[in-house]
């Protein structure tokens, strides 16, 4: 008879700290805690920056700038607030500053390119539909495009979008409604 295999218990995963604990740890001098915050939010923040700026390189710079600003101002973070709302707000304002600089220097409307994630060959038709949708979103005015991005692509609630964009709740709802109407019209043509 063969020897019985020793079964080792699965390794115990380190507990996942919530954002508040990571912020406290960062403020206490644990730099790796802030790295964890960056890891959690960098993709979502990048998607917002990319949709807003329409340029991958500028979006990467805006994200880096946003996290740098967040790190430097972490001691001003309000306990109990959502870190995601805070970092989105910082990033969005950074993007707005970049857009204003661009407009000042070029005087033209800015191009937009999202990160297209093409599906497998079997999903070619869906890929075409997704491309049409991306093009329709890209054609929206910036204020509508941003609200659509935060609501549908980032899954943010109206209140959080209002906070990020520093807009009244009613304005966010109106922008979202008008954006959806414009998308319906563009996609039905």
* Oligomeric nature of the chains: single chain
State the helix count. 8
Strand content: under 5%
The best one-word shape is globular
Instruction: Give the terminus-to-terminus CA distance.
Output: 73 Å
> How does the helix and strand content classify structurally?
mainly alpha
CATH topology assignment of the largest domain: Rna Polymerase Sigma Factor, Chain: A
Unreliable stretches = 107-123
The value of Rg in angstroms is 21 Å
CATH homologous superfamily of the largest domain, by name?
RNA polymerase sigma factor, region 2, helix turn helix motif
Helical coverage, percent range: 55-70%
Helix/strand order? HHHHHHHH
CATH class of the largest domain: Mainly Alpha
Largest sheet, strands/sense/barrel: none
Q: Could you say what the CATH architecture of the largest domain is?
A: Orthogonal Bundle
The number of E-state strands comes to 0
- The overall pLDDT, averaged over residues, is 80
Family: Belongs to the sigma-70 factor family. ECF subfamily.
Pfam family, one: Sigma70_r2
Organism: Vulcanimicrobium alpinum
GO molecular function, one term: sigma factor activity
